[in-house]
Amino acid sequence: MSMMSIVEQIPLTNAENIERENRRSNSSCLELWSVLDQVKDPEIPVITIWELGVLQNVTRSGDHVTVTITPTYSGCPAMEVIKEDILAALSSAGINDVVVNTQLAPAWTTDWLSSKAKASLKEFGIATINSDNTIVCPQCGCNKIKQISEFGSTSCKALYQCLECHEAFDLFKSH
Amino acid sequence: MGTEISVKEYVVRLGDDALILGHRLSEWCRNAPFLEEDLALSNVALDFIGRARMFYTYAAELSGQDVTEDTFAYQRDCRDFKNHLIHELPRGDFAFTMVRQYFVDVYSLAFMTSLLESSDSRLAAIAGKAIKESEYHLRRSEEWMMRLGESTQESHRRLQSAVDELWRFTGELFDQDSPERELVSNGVAVDTRALEAEWNQTITATMSKISIEIPKDELQVTGGREGKHTEFLGFLLSELQFLQRAYPGLEW
Fold first, then answer.
1. How distant, in Å, are the alpha carbons of B175, B219, B223 from that of B172?
2. Residue among B50, B121, B124 whose CB faces A73 most closely
3. CB distance B43–A148 less than 8 Å?
4. Pairwise CB contact (< 8 Å): A148 & B36
């Protein structure tokens, strides 16, 4: 295998996501980030908003907390629920002076999904697109699949079927 | 003096385009020809309504006072809406909806690509989100052109009649009034005239593949950006705004 093709197989690390991770690890209020690890995507209750790439920043000044999130899809109704869940999680930790800001740029992308998130999605029955652009059935691992619909039950998913085990499954779309 | 529009008004125009088309698409929910299409059309509707929300939220911030995104969606009448007319036409049959979508998707992708370069950073950010969705929409609507164009005589006939009916509403997409031209020269607004040639080329190429004829020398209908609408917008708004008209200020 040539050097070039090996390099091409290494998944690209997203600069914006590294910044996001640095914001968390350098934060002076790590405990608040941990509180927000309770908040899951309401439609996919196995991944947290951190793993999903929605949670961008948490800052505290005095008693006032500002949480910044990035919407996934423009019209995704889950974003409203996520905002409410953030307020509820912080409130149960005794923090009530909270503002949740929405930040559009940089635009959210599936590249920000952590590998742990991808594994949780698979476990939950939702496939993601592999770094070599293949899709395998999350039930049986077969790569013989067909698309049923480009759109699925939520904005972020498309509907596929495995031609081996015949199970229909959701694919987390590349975005 | 007096011919200029503010950035806010421009943003509202873009919000109107997205909201009205989003509403028309949402009418297919539970009416689409089959389940997967029902999901697809509802999802695309959601993307456009989400796009409208981003524009209206920004316009509300520029307005200050008690203005919110809902003020623009629910508390204005026909003349205040400045959407391009193509978005408000009734959904028609499936071919009509998909031809309109294809025309709009080709346009939107070029428009959002250009808006990415806007000197207004918020507009550029909105474009950054919308562009990804438009790519997805276009892939699907283009595929439908092929499927309908190559399937049966009946689907081909319906496709042709949709193109004939819609063509006269496409010129308006590229016909900017002088207030909007002012914002083009500031680098805020998209120069839509510059998008026309490529749009025409793309549409003509697709239609020639499936033997659909583009109408020639067709009279173009305009007026949306001045608030002069077809009779259909009023009916659309009466449904869209029903709750707020019947129970002003109602909240969930």
1. 5, 11, 8
2. B50
3. no
4. yes
Residue B187 backbone class (left: φ over 0; alpha: ψ -120 to 50; beta: rest): left
Report, at the CATH architecture level, how domain B2-246 is classified: Up-down Bundle (1.20)
ipTM for the complex?
0.81
Whole-structure pTM value = 0.90
Q: Tell me the CA distances in angstroms from A45 to A109, A120, A124, one per residue in order.
A: 19, 10, 9
Beta bridge partners of A67: A58, A100
For residue A25, count other CB atoms closer than 10 A to its CB: 8
Mutation target among A74, A80, A175 for the B interface, most CBs of B within 10 A: A74
- A150 close to A158: Cβ distance less than 8 angstroms: yes
Shortest Cα distance from B214 to chain A (angstroms)?
29
Residue A128 bridge partners (DSSP): A172
Peptide bond into A42 cis (omega under 30): no
Tell me how far apart the alpha carbons of residues A45 and B57 are, in angstroms, rounded to a whole number: 29
**pLDDT one-digit tens code per residue, A73-122:** 888 889 999 999 999 999 999 999 999 999 999 999 988 998 889 999 99
Q: Which of A43, A151, A172, A174 to mutate to test the interface with B (most CBs of B within 10 A)?
A: A151
A74·B128 Cβ contact <8 A: no
CA distance B84 to B169: 8
Q: Is the minimum CB–CB distance between A159 and chain B shorter than 8 Å?
A: yes
